[in-house]
Each structure stands twice: as C-alpha cells, then as structure tokens.
Design goal:
Elements (H helix, E strand, L loop, with lengths): L1 H31 L3 H26 L3 H45 L7 H29 L7 E6 L10 E5 L10 H12 L5 E5 L9 H9 L7 E4 L2 H5 L2 H10 L8 E7 L2 E7 L11 H12 L7 E5 L16 E4 L8 E2 L2 E2 L13 E5 L2 E5 L19 E6 L3
Parallel strand pairs: 1-13, 2-3, 3-4, 6-7, 7-8, 8-12
Antiparallel strand pairs: 2-13, 5-6, 9-10, 11-12
Helix pairs in contact: 1-2, 1-3, 2-3, 3-4, 5-6
The structure holds fe (ii) ion.
Length: 399
C-alpha cells in the first residue's frame, strides 16, 4: 500500500513543482529572454510525471523490475529538471538585469554612443545557457547513476601490519540499497567482476536491501564470492528503516555471519585478524557520538592484544570516537560520497559538520578509514562520484 501512496504523492509533487517553475518562467524570465522551448518543456513535465507514474504502477503490480526502475527514475528526473530550473533561472534573471542596468548607465554617460545589440545578444545567450546547462547536467547525473559498479583497488599502508597480512585483499561492499535502482542482476555482475580480483575476504557495511524480499537472494549471491576467509555483514540505518527484526531474521538465516556489537578473530598463519561489526545509531539528526562510542567499546572487547583490528561501521563518523581502541582500519559507507564528486573527493567535503568523512581515505591518529561511495542509492543522481566496491589491499609500510 505504502508504495502506491508514494507513487501518487510523487506525481502530485512533480506536477506542482512543474506548474510553479513554469509560472516563474512566464512571469519573470520570459519577458527578458524569450526562449519558448524551455517553457514548452516545463509545460509537458507534469504529463511526463503522470506517464512515468503509470509505468511504475504497472511495474509494481506485475513485478516487472525494468518498469519499476524506468517509472521511478522518470518521476525523479522530472523533479530534478524542475529543481535545476528553479535554481538556475534566477541567475539568468540576475545576468540579464545587470546587463540592462549597465547598458542604461553607459547610454546616460555617452548619449552619442548607440546601444550595442551584439553585446546584448551575447549576454542573452549567457542567460539562456544556464538553464540549458542545468538540463544537460541533470541528464548526465541521471545516466551516471546507472553506470556499473567500479571495483577500485585501494592500497592502504600500515606500520604494524603482520607479514602474513601483507597483500591481503578485502572486498568492501556497502550501500547496495537493493530495490529499483540496484537490482540482483547488478549485484550478480559485481560478484562476477570481483571474482577476477580474488579477494581474501568480503565485508558488507550495511544498507544492503531496501526491499527485504530480495535480501536472502542477495546474501546467497554475495556468498558465491567463495573467499578463503569468507566474510561478514554489519548493519546500516536502512536495515532499521525496513524493519530491523525481519532484517536480522533474514541475515541470521543466510550464509553470512552478522556482527552486531561484537567481532571475531581469524587466524592467518601466526597472526590474528580481528573483524568487528558496530551497530547503527539509526538517527540522522541528533548527536550520534555517544552511541558510536558505546557500540565501538562493546565491539572491541573481543579483540586480542596482538590482533590487527578492522572495524565495520556504517557511519564514517566513527573515526572520531576510536581513540585508544587500537583500531587499525575502519570500513564505512552511508554517505554515498554525497553522490557528487570533484577531483576524486566529494564535492561537499568539509561542508557538513556532522559528516566530515564523505568519500575516500582518511587517517586520525593510528586509525585509517575508508568511506565507500556505495554501490547503489535511493536517489538516482550521481556526478563524478561513481558507484564503487573498493578492493582494499593491506600493505606493510616500508621502513
Ligand atoms: Fe545509510
């Protein structure tokens, strides 16, 4: 029932937003630069939203994944077009308004000098280019969100790494959000590609499935990696959102051990590798630091004095609470890298106080962190921040 209400609300919101955007174009911008094609495009957007809603609805009724994906992505694209237009149109207006004022000032200064129509044309084109650029960027962002998951090799160096773990390969899987935008067939492709890399272990750091009916098959698929040291899974906030009791039941019935507030030691030669799984604080608003401190303390109790310690924690903020816990590496997800990247980092890096570690490698004290940009998403827009399944390679630092 909830999904049908979502479809209905989505189409109503997308239509209202389109009507609002069109009104702004007609009332403000159309007077200045008459670019009727944009006006026409926005006029048809509510009909497009309705069309995609019907596809989504039938996809849901007859369980056709392609229709569900197409319908939901279509409605989201209508939203994005409207939002991008709303954001950029005022800038177009400012450019044109400024130009009119400059021209008027200049003609007052020098009455003999005639109005320059060529210059006006250039400014007008610049004003029109912003919304056109926004449409291009939106389309690219939507398309990028459907690109295949990249298995990136990430070497991380540690002074205290036991010799036996030098070159140990961890396949880090996070934030699949299995549902309409990331499906079992996508996961199957990731598993096939990952097998070529011969990982030693796989670690899954939460937000596995937004459709719990897919969870058992997803776990079986991941288990086909058949890694020598098997793998573990830990919880994310979406396991709580989708129903924590049902999620845990399905994890426990599956082939991959679930770690909540605990860890296990794996013997590799004479070395001890500790893998721990922190719990998720669920909330996105209040201060999660006290919760993270408690869950990390509980989890690390099963580590030994000589073990090399890896912690799975959905929230990268965990890096701020691990002082004196002897954790060598934390693997996290959750942020999706903000889904927009610049120069290999999140575009929003350093801008969000609550999420300081958005994407990539970080270090604090002796603890290193890798935050994955995630394999899936619940909002289909990515720009310069591809979905990924990092292959973390542990390396001994050279003296
Ligand atoms: Fe999350």
């Amino acid at each position: 029932m909830r999904i049908y209400i979502t479809i209905l609300v989505s189409v109503i919101l997308a239509s209202l937003l389109s009507i609002l955007t069109r009104n702004i174009i007609r009332r403000i911008n159309k007077k200045i630069w008459k670019f009727s094609k944009i006006d026409t495009l926005v006029f048809y957007l509510p009909f497009a939203a309705l069309f995609f809603a019907v596809i989504w609805f039938f996809g849901r009724i007859f369980i056709i994944p392609l229709f569900m994906t197409l319908g939901a992505a279509g409605i989201i694209s209508v939203f994005l077009f409207d939002l991008m237009m709303l954001i950029t149109l005022p800038f177009s207006w400012i450019i044109d308004f400024t130009n009119v004022r400059i021209q008027s000032f200049k003609s007052k200064q020098n009455k003999k000098k005639s109005f320059n129509p060529e210059r006006r044309k250039v400014i007008k084109a610049a004003a029109a280019a912003l919304p056109l650029f926004s449409i291009g960027a939106t389309g690219t962002g939507l398309a990028s969100s459907f690109q295949s998951v990249c298995i990136r090799r990430i070497p991380l160096y540690f002074d205290n790494l036991p010799e036996e773990l030098d070159g140990f390969k961890i396949l880090h899987l996070s934030d699949m959000h299995l549902s309409i935008y990331f499906q079992l067939s996508d996961l199957e492709t990731v598993v096939e590609n990952a097998l070529k890399e011969k990982p030693d272990i796989f670690l899954v750091t939460g937000d596995v499935s937004d459709d719990l009916r897919l969870l058992p098959d997803a776990l079986k698929l991941i288990n086909q990696l058949n890694t020598p040291h098997h793998g573990y899974v830990s919880l994310g906030n979406h396991e709580y959102y989708r129903g924590i009791r049902e999620s845990i039941q399905k994890f426990v019935a599956g082939p991959i051990p679930l770690l909540i507030n605990k860890g296990e030691i794996i013997k590799i030669g004479n070395s001890n590798l500790f893998i721990g799984g922190a719990d998720d604080p669920v909330t996105l608003r209040s201060d999660i630091t006290p919760f993270l401190k408690r869950t990390v303390e509980m989890t690390m109790q099963s580590a030994t004095e000589d073990s090399f310690n890896i912690l799975m924690s959905h929230r990268p903020k965990t890096l701020d609470v691990v002082e004196n816990q002897n954790i060598d590496l934390i693997l996290s997800g959750h942020t999706h890298g903000g889904q927009v990247g610049f120069n290999g980092r999140s575009l929003f890096e350093g801008m969000i106080e609550k999420e300081p570690y958005l994407w990539g490698e970080y270090k604090k004290g002796e603890t290193q962190l890798y935050t994955s940009s995630g394999m899936g998403h619940w909002f289909p827009f990515r720009f310069n921040c591809p979905p990924e399944a990092p292959l973390i390679i542990l390396k001994k630092s050279k003296a």
